[in-house]
Specification:
The structure holds 2 protein chains of 2 kinds.
Chain A: H1 26-56, H2 58-95, H3 98-101, E1 111-117, H4 123-135, E2 143-150, H5 155-168, E3 174-180, H6 191-210, E4 217-221, E5 227-228, H7 232-242, E6 249-256, H8 266-283, E7 295-298, H9 299-305, H10 315-326, E8 332-341, H11 350-365, H12 368-378, H13 386-411, H14 416-420, H15 423-426, H16 429-459, H17 470-477, H18 482-503
Parallel strand pairs in A: 1-2, 1-4, 2-3, 6-8
Antiparallel strand pairs in A: 4-7, 5-8, 6-7
Helix pairs in contact in A: 1-2, 1-12, 1-13, 1-18, 2-8, 2-16, 4-5, 9-10, 10-12, 11-18, 12-13, 13-18, 16-17
Chain B: H1 12-37, E1 40-43, E2 50-53, E3 55-60, E4 67-70, E5 73-74, E6 84-90, E7 93-100, E8 107-113, E9 118-122, E10 131-135, E11 138-139, E12 145-148, E13 161-162, E14 166-169, E15 178-179, H2 181-192, H3 202-208, H4 216-223, E16 230-233, E17 236-241, E18 244-249, E19 261-262, H5 267-274, H6 276-283, E20 295-298, E21 301-304, E22 306-308, E23 316-321, E24 328-333, E25 336-341, E26 350-355, E27 359-364, E28 367-372, E29 375-380
Parallel strand pairs in B: 3-9, 10-13, 12-14
Antiparallel strand pairs in B: 1-2, 3-6, 4-5, 4-7, 7-8, 10-29, 11-12, 11-15, 16-17, 17-18, 18-22, 19-21, 20-21, 23-24, 24-25, 25-26, 27-28, 28-29
The chains are: A alpha/beta, B alpha+beta.
Chain lengths: 517, 386
C-alpha cells in the first residue's frame, strides 16, 4: 500500500486521476461516459442544426449567421487587442534585466528542476535544449536537469541521453538520465507518463538524498525542443517571488515556435504563430487559462497531487486541472509574458508537414478530455464554490465547442441558406444581401490578420544566411491562409478528436516529430 | 533601471470594460444589420428622415460585355461575377431594365419591384449582325473554309458576317485542298433528318380545313410532319396547341420558374405589373376546377404552368429550345430564325438570329446548322469575346 499522506485530501480519491469512463464503475462510469459524448454531440448538433435550419428555417438561419459574423468581428477585435497588449508586455519583458530585478529577493537556495522528456528526437535537439540552459543568465549549478528517455525508444535513445550527460552533465547542479519503462500498468505511452516517472525518480535519487526543501524547487517541464531565452529562470524566480500564491500557481511562458521557423513551410509557420498568438491571448486572461506545453510549477504543488497523471494524452493541461481540483478550485496561472523557443511542426515534404500539423492539433484538441474530467469532478467536489464550478465548466466547454464549430460555421455553413434555403427565402433581399454582408464582415475581421502579420514578423528570429529576403514578404502574406488553416488544422482535427471521444475510440499520445533531418 | 516590470498584465477591470463595450456594440449593430439585409433603409429625402423598404433586381446576362441600365441609369459593372447584376436599394414600383452593348441586340424589360423581394430576369443579346461559320466541302490545310468560284455565297453574307476566314478558289484548284469531314456530316444530317420546310401547324390547319379542297403543298404536309409535337428540356415542354406555341412547366410546383408566377391578388394590379396578357392568363383560370386549372399556388404566389410564346404572327416551321437554355426558344418563322424568351412579364423579347425565307434548320449537339440554297453553315448565337 503506497503512502498517500503527502497528498492533498481530494487528491487521495481513487478516481482523482481517472482518464476515461472505462476506468470507473456503476453510475460514475455512466456519468463519465455521458460527459465524453457531450462535446461531440454539441459540435455535430450545431453543425447539422445549421444545415437543418438552412433548409427548413432559412430566415432564422440567415439572421443567426449575420449575428454570428458580427460576433466574430467583435471577437477578433477583442482577441487582437489581447495579442497586441501582450506583445507590448512580451517585448518589454524581453528588454528587462531580470537578474537585477531579482537581486532584491533571497532566491539563492532555490533550485530549478528542469525535465526534458524525449522519445526519438535527434541529438542536435537535445544538445540545443541543454546549451540553452548553459547559456542562460542563471547559475547552472542551481539547475537540476533530468533527461527523461523513453524505454520503448530503445537503446539509441538511452545512448543519446548518456552522450548528453557526458558532454553537459558536469555543468549543472545535477544531471540525471531516467529511462521510463514501457510496461507500467495503467499508463499510456506518452510525455505525461514519462514525466511522471522522472519526477518520482528524481525525488528518490536527488531531492531526498540532497535534502532539498520541496518548497525551494521550481519544476520546469519542457518539451525537448525547448530552448530557454537567457532570462527565463530569472523571470520565473521574479514571478514566483511576487506571486500572490507562489506554491499554488503554475507559471506559463509564451511558446514561440521559432527554432526552425525559417526552414518551415508557410503553412507550418502560420500554424506555429497562430498557436503562439493564442497563448499570448491567454497570457492576458490568466483567470481563464490552463497550462500548455512547456511550463513551470512548484515541486511542492506537484508532490501534493502525486505528480499529475500518467494515463492521459493532454498531460500538459491535465496537470493544471489536477492541481486546481486538489486545491479546492484555487490554483492560479501566472503569465510570465516571457518567451521560450520551440520547434514549428515540419516534415521533409509538404504533405508530411500537413499530416504532422493535423495530428499535432488533433492531439491538442483532444484536450477536450479535460472537460469531461473537470465536470465529472465538479459533480463530486462540493468544496469548490458552485459558481466557480459552473463558470469554469461553461467557459472551458465553450472553448472546445467554438474551436470546432466557429470556423466551419463562418467559412462554410455561412453560405448554406443561399444554397439550401427555401424558394420563398431565395426571392428575398435577405437572401441576396446575406453573402454580401457576411463577406464584408469577414473582410473587416481580416484586418486582424494585418496585425497578426506585423506581430509575427517582429517575433521572427533574424534571417539566417542563405535565406532570401523575399521570404519576409512571404511571411507577411502567408496570413491570408488563415481561413483555410482554421478549418483544416483547428476545426476538423478538433471535430475528429471530439468524435473519437464521443464514440469511445480513445486516442493515444502521438509524438510530434521534431525538426526535419 | 526599474525595480519591477512597467507593464503589468491587463487588469480584469479593463478587460471587463472592453468586453461589455463590445457586447454593447453587438447589441447596437445586430438589429441595424438585420434590418439592412432585409431591405430597410433610412431615407433623408425632402429633409425628412424616415425608414423605407426597398427591393432589388437581379439580372443575369449571357455576355459579360454589356451595359445594364435601370430606369435610364447605368448600373456599375460587377467586379466578380460579371454576368450577374444585383441591383440594390430599389423602391418598389415598375422599373425598366435595358441590357445593351455594341454589336448586340438590345434586351428591354419592365419589371415589378416589391419591397423585401428581389425580382429576377435573364437577359439575352444576340448579335446585331448574324454570325455564321461556313461549312464547305473543301478546306485548306489550316482548316479555312473554301468556296469554289461557282459557289461563292454572295447572298449568304449579304446580311451576316462570318466568324472565320474563308477563301474562294476555282473549281479546278480543289485537288490541292482537303475534304471537310464536317461537311459530309452536315450534308448527311440534312439528308436523313426531317427539316423545317413545313409549318408546325400543318396538321391543325388540315383538320380545320377538312372540308376544303387541298392544295399541293398541304398534301405534302400530311406526309411530312417536321417538328416533333413535344420538345422537353429540364421539365419544360414546348408544345403546339391549335395555332399557338406554348411552354409548359412539367416539374414540381415549388420549382416552377419565377416568370410563371405573379404576386398580385387582383386582375387589375396583375395587368398593371405584368401585362394584360398575363392577367388574362392567370385570372381566366381562377375559380376553375383543379382538374382543368393550369394554376398552382406556390407560397403566396399564383403560378401558371403554361405560357404562350410570341411567334410574331407568323407561321412556325421549327421550334426547339435555344441550345444550352430552357428559358429561350428558337423559332424558325416565315422570314428567318428567331430566339424568343418564355418569360412574358411585360412582353417577350424576340431577337432575330438569322434572316431568310428559304432556310432549313437542324440543331445537332447544341449547334444550329442551316442550309440555305446549296450552302451549309452554323449560326453563331453570340459575338466572340474580344
Amino acid at each position: 500500500m503506497s503512502d498517500n499522506s503527502h497528498l492533498l485530501p481530494y487528491a487521495r480519491r481513487v478516481d482523482f486521476k481517472v482518464a476515461r469512463a472505462n476506468e470507473l464503475t456503476g453510475a460514475d462510469r455512466r456519468l463519465y461516459r455521458f460527459l465524453e459524448i457531450v462535446p461531440g454531440v454539441a459540435a455535430w448538433g450545431t453543425l447539422l442544426g445549421i444545415v437543418w435550419a438552412s433548409i427548413y428555417a432559412s430566415f432564422f438561419a440567415a439572421y443567426f449567421i449575420i449575428a454570428f459574423a458580427i460576433y466574430w468581428v467583435l471577437k477578433t477585435i477583442f482577441l487582437s487587442y489581447h495579442v497586441r497588449y501582450n506583445w507590448k508586455r512580451l517585448r518589454h519583458h524581453m528588454a528587462l534585466d531580470w537578474s537585477q530585478l531579482i537581486s532584491k529577493f533571497k532566491y539563492q537556495d532555490h533550485y530549478h528542476l528542469v525535465i526534458f522528456p524525449f522519445y526519438e528526437e535527434p541529438q542536435e535537439i537535445i544538445d540545443g535544449a541543454l546549451k540553452g540552459l548553459i547559456e542562460a543568465n542563471y547559475d547552472p549549478k542551481k539547475l537540476l536537469v533530468v533527461l527523461a528517455a523513453e524505454g520503448r525508444a530503445g537503446a539509441n535513445a538511452i545512448k543519446k541521453a548518456k552522450q548528453a550527460e557526458e558532454l553537459y552533465g558536469s555543468q549543472f547542479g545535477s544531471f540525471q538520465v531516467t529511462v521510463h519503462p514501457s510496461d507500467i500498468v495503467g499508463e499510456i505511452a506518452g510525455k505525461g507518463s514519462n514525466v511522471h516517472f522522472a519526477l518520482r525518480s528524481v525525488h528518490d535519487d536527488v531531492i531526498v538524498p540532497r535534502q532539498i526543501d520541496h518548497k525551494n524547487i521550481l519544476v520546469s517541464i519542457f518539451d525537448v525542443d525547448t530552448v530557454v531565452y537567457p532570462d527565463y529562470f530569472n523571470c520565473l524566480i521574479w514571478h514566483f517571488m511576487t506571486a500572490e500564491n507562489p506554491y499554488k500557481s503554475a507559471y506559463q511562458p509564451v511558446p514561440l515556435f521559432t527554432n526552425n521557423l525559417w526552414e518551415a513551410s508557410a503553412v507550418a509557420r502560420v500554424m506555429a504563430m497562430s498557436s503562439t498568438f493564442w497563448q499570448m491571448i491567454m497570457q492576458e486572461r490568466p483567470d481563464k487559462a490552463a497550462t500548455f506545453s512547456s511550463h513551470s510549477v512548484s515541486y511542492q504543488a506537484l508532490y501534493e497531487i502525486g505528480y499529475g497523471q500518467a494515463n492521459v494524452v493532454s498531460e500538459d493541461s491535465r496537470i493544471y486541472w489536477n492541481l486546481l481540483l486538489a486545491n479546492d478550485g484555487y490554483f492560479d496561472v501566472v503569465s510570465l509574458s516571457y518567451p521560450i523557443a520551440m520547434d514549428a511542426t515540419t516534415a521533409a515534404t509538404t504533405w508530411g508537414t500537413i499530416k504532422n500539423i493535423y495530428k499535432q492539433h488533433r492531439r491538442w484538441t483532444y484536450g477536450v478530455e479535460n472537460w469531461c474530467y473537470l465536470v465529472y469532478h465538479f459533480t463530486k467536489h462540493k468544496g469548490i464554490p458552485l459558481r466557480r464550478r459552473w463558470s469554469i465548466a461553461l467557459q472551458q466547454g465553450e472553448g472546445y465547442w467554438s474551436l470546432v464549430t466557429n470556423p466551419i460555421m463562418l467559412f462554410i455553413l455561412g453560405w448554406t441558406p443561399i444554397f439550401l434555403g427555401s424558394r420563398e427565402f431565395h426571392e428575398t433581399v435577405l437572401s441576396y444581401e446575406l453573402p454580401i454582408m457576411v463577406r464584408n464582415l469577414l473582410t473587416v475581421a481580416m484586418v486582424g490578420l494585418v496585425f497578426s502579420s506585423i506581430i509575427s514578423l517582429s517575433l521572427t528570429p533574424p534571417r539566417p544566411e542563405g535565406q532570401s529576403r523575399f521570404k519576409y514578404i512571404v511571411m507577411a502574406l502567408q496570413w491570408i491562409m488563415v481561413p483555410i488553416t482554421m478549418i483544416v488544422f483547428s476545426a476538423i482535427p478538433g471535430l475528429d478528436a471530439q468524435t473519437r471521444l464521443m464514440l469511445g475510440r480513445y486516442m493515444g499520445f502521438w509524438v510530434t516529430p521534431k525538426r526535419v533531418q | 533601471m526599474p525595480t519591477e516590470p512597467q507593464i503589468t498584465g491587463m487588469s480584469s477591470r479593463r478587460r471587463a470594460v472592453f468586453f461589455w463595450g463590445l457586447v454593447l456594440v453587438f447589441l447596437l449593430v445586430l438589429p441595424s444589420m438585420i434590418f439592412y439585409t432585409a431591405g430597410y433603409r433610412i431615407s433623408f429625402e425632402d429633409d425628412v428622415t424616415s425608414v423605407v423598404t426597398t427591393g432589388g433586381v437581379y439580372i443575369s446576362t449571357q455576355s459579360t460585355d454589356v451595359e445594364v441600365y435601370l430606369d435610364e441609369e447605368q448600373i456599375e459593372r460587377p467586379r466578380l461575377f460579371r454576368s450577374a447584376y444585383y441591383i440594390q436599394n430599389i423602391d418598389s414600383g415598375m422599373r425598366r431594365v435595358v441590357v445593351q452593348g455594341e454589336g448586340i441586340q438590345t434586351w428591354v424589360k419592365e419589371l415589378a419591384v416589391d419591397s423585401h423581394i428581389v425580382t429576377e430576369a435573364s437577359a439575352f443579346n444576340l448579335p446585331a449582325i448574324p454570325q455564321l461559320r461556313p461549312v464547305t466541302e473543301f478546306q485548306t490545310s489550316t482548316g479555312a473554309a473554301v468556296f469554289t468560284a461557282s459557289s461563292t455565297p454572295i447572298e449568304l453574307f449579304a446580311n451576316a458576317t462570318t466568324s472565320e476566314q474563308f477563301i474562294v478558289a476555282t473549281t479546278s484548284a480543289t485537288s490541292t485542298l482537303t475534304m471537310n469531314p464536317e461537311y459530309e456530316f452536315v450534308v448527311s444530317l440534312f439528308g436523313t433528318t426531317s427539316t423545317s420546310s413545313v409549318s408546325v401547324f400543318a396538321d391543325h390547319v388540315r383538320d380545320l380545313d377538312r372540308f376544303r379542297f387541298m392544295g399541293p403543298d398541304e398534301r405534302a404536309a400530311t406526309t411530312s410532319t417536321t417538328s416533333p409535337a413535344i420538345i422537353e428540356s429540364n421539365n419544360m415542354q414546348l408544345v403546339t396547341r391549335g395555332m399557338e406555341l406554348y411552354a409548359l412547366w412539367q416539374g414540381q410546383d415549388q420549382d416552377v420558374p419565377y416568370y410563371f408566377c405573379v404576386s398580385s391578388s387582383s386582375a387589375a394590379s396583375t395587368s398593371e405589373r405584368y401585362g394584360a396578357h398575363v392577367a388574362d392568363a392567370v385570372f381566366a383560370q381562377v375559380g376553375t376546377t383543379t382538374a382543368t386549372s393550369t394554376l398552382v399556388q406556390v407560397n403566396d404566389r399564383l403560378c401558371r404552368t403554361q405560357i404562350k410564346l410570341d411567334r410574331l404572327r407568323q407561321d412556325v416551321f421549327l421550334f426547339d429550345f435555344f441550345p444550352g437554355s430552357s428559358d429561350l426558344v428558337l423559332l424558325q418563322l416565315e422570314d428567318g430564325l428567331y430566339v424568343t424568351e418564355i418569360d412574358d412579364r411585360a412582353w417577350q423579347n424576340t431577337q432575330l438570329l438569322y434572316p431568310g425565307r428559304d432556310l432549313r434548320v437542324i440543331i445537332e449537339n447544341d449547334v444550329i446548322y442551316v442550309k440555305q440554297g446549296d450552302q451549309y453553315f452554323e449560326v453563331i448565337p453570340e459575338i466572340e469575346s474580344t
